Amino acid sequence: MAFEQKHGIATKVEFTNAKSTTLDPDFASFEYCFLKSVNRTYKYLSVKVNLHKTSVTKVNVNVAIFKRYNGYKPFFYNVTVDACKFLVREKPDPIATYLYSMFKSYSNMNHSCPFDNDILVEKLPIGFINQQVTEVLPVPHGDYLFHSNWLAYDINRATVSVYFTIS
């Protein structure tokens, strides 16, 4: 049980914004990238990337977590992973495994390379993220940015940024 629950303090994660940017529109484009509030307790994130060049066999992902102080400053992790190798043998990198676990169940990125289809993260609920952030690896209160760069063949093709608050 999380420290907060044991001591009667409620911790809550809330999505505040999501931004996706295509850096190479000939390679890929975002069909959608949005947050949706269904009601006061159910909010989710959905992202769909249309790959215009398929059979992608070399993908690296750089993920950095920032905390807002006076602007966003590096806070937690800044890790780059060879996605093709990682998806074959997920266990060796505990940081990448933890970050991947945040969206794995809500994504079609569950196989090794090549990537031949559009990539989805569909209806990732804030309740699931809340559990991961407050129970699995507790994180201090504040405003955060999860920023990712998606590189194919060593060229940055897209970025995805998800802003959230922990209170």
Automatic annotation (TrEMBL):
<protein>
    <submittedName>
        <fullName>Uncharacterized protein</fullName>
    </submittedName>
</protein>
<dbReference type="InterPro" id="IPR010512">
    <property type="entry name" value="DUF1091"/>
</dbReference>
<dbReference type="Pfam" id="PF06477">
    <property type="entry name" value="DUF1091"/>
</dbReference>
